[in-house]
Amino acid sequence: MVTDVRLGKEIHCFVLRRGFVEDVFVENALISFYSKCLGVGYARKLFNIMRERDVVTWNSMIAGYAQAGFFKECKELYREMVALPGFKPNAVTVLIVLQACMQSQDLVFGMEVHRFVVDNKVELDVLVCNALIGLYAKCGSLDYARELFDEMSEKDEVTYGAIISGYMAHGVVDKGMELFREMKSRALSTWNAVISGLVQNNRHEGAVDLVREMQGLGFKPNAVTLSSVLPALSYFSNLKGGKEMHGFAVKNGNTGNYAIMANLYSRAGKWKEADEDTSNENALGIYAMLGGFSGLMKEEGNVLENLAKVAVYG
User: pTM value?
Assistant: First the structure.
């Protein structure tokens, strides 16, 4: 990154020396560079002194704010752009601002952008529709999201993923699963999103079943899959399912879940297995054993019996 910044500064000095500073294409590239490497403050200074700005200029600056998390400034600049006479945001502008609205969960501003799209006949291609569905779904306006979804003639995995994630996030699990089953092709990220959604909605057995199903279809669970499902198994003492997932994790080199499994064994009263599991990751494992042990003491109310178990298994 340091090398990139130094190179960018050298290029800027070259641009100044050669007199290219007022070339709008060069300045647009510099705005993007400054936003990513030096901060949006530098980019905005250049933006403010530019004599000529085109749609790419505005999009670059708006995107710089959005990517840096300055959502308020992103929206304000979009409104400035809309107000310009004879100048109109394009589909790229809309995508950038809708993403900012989704990340900041600003439904009201997102609906304003949607109205602009309709009023100005901005093409509702799959990318714009996906962004709108993602916004409405994340903000809980599931009826709007579903209406847009049903009206789309062309849908991709992102389309399905956006509305399914919305359903899962807001507890409408059955509708989310219906759409998941409707999909003709599913990426690993889609499987992970649904598994995570099931766990969040306390559908733990369903999550484990889905992991088994994805393996049967040739998908290999990754660290995201396992980190989604293992904590739920630990909390609910599903020892059989947890051992199955842990075995798969170890076999495939995802060995970062020792603490979870030690806690799982402890909650199930399998103190010897918990102790064996801690041999791989002592500090985390012991911490998890203590967590499981204290949980059992609270649940069973038999301190002496649990102390005896620890004494027997070391």
Answer: 0.76
